[in-house]
Amino acid sequence: MAGVLVAAGRQSLTLYLAHIIIGMGVLEGLGLLGGQSATSAAIAALVFCAAACIYAALWQRVAQRGPLEALMRRVVG
Q1: What is the pTM of this model?
Q2: Cα separation, 4 vs 56, whole angstroms
Q3: Which residue of 2, 18, 36, 42 is surrounded by the most CB atoms within 10 Å?
Q4: pLDDT tens digits for 22-45?
Q5: Could you count the other beta carbons within 10 Å of the beta carbon of residue 65?
Q6: How far apart are CA 66 and CA 48, in angstroms?
Q7: Of the candidates 35, 38, 4, 33, which has an alpha carbon nearest to the alpha carbon of residue 20?
């Protein structure tokens, strides 16, 4: 379990932007962004967190850093 969280932590920039662009974008597209109950908001957050952890664990098998973290490392030096 700790390995999954470590993988997600190493990809925090990628996951943050995915949360904004993909997560919020999907909710907006489905018309679920406003006026939801606390329960439905918590469920949406848990679903995104689970998906993000699964993605991070799978991506870690391909590369040590997330795609945006690797890009930032190349740009900054």
Answers
A1: 0.80
A2: 7
A3: 18
A4: 888 888 888 878 888 889 889 988
A5: 16
A6: 17
A7: 33
Q: How confident is the model at residue 39, as a pLDDT?
A: 92
Q: Which two tokens stand for residue 5?
A: 């969280």
Residue-wise DSSP of 16-32: HHHIIIIIHHHHHHTT-
User: Scanning the structure block, which residue is given the tokens 């995104």?
Assistant: 48
Residue 16's pLDDT is what?
Answer: 94
CA distance 38 to 74: 40
- For the chain, what are the domain ranges? 2-76
Q: Please name the residue that has the structure tokens 């870690």.
A: 60
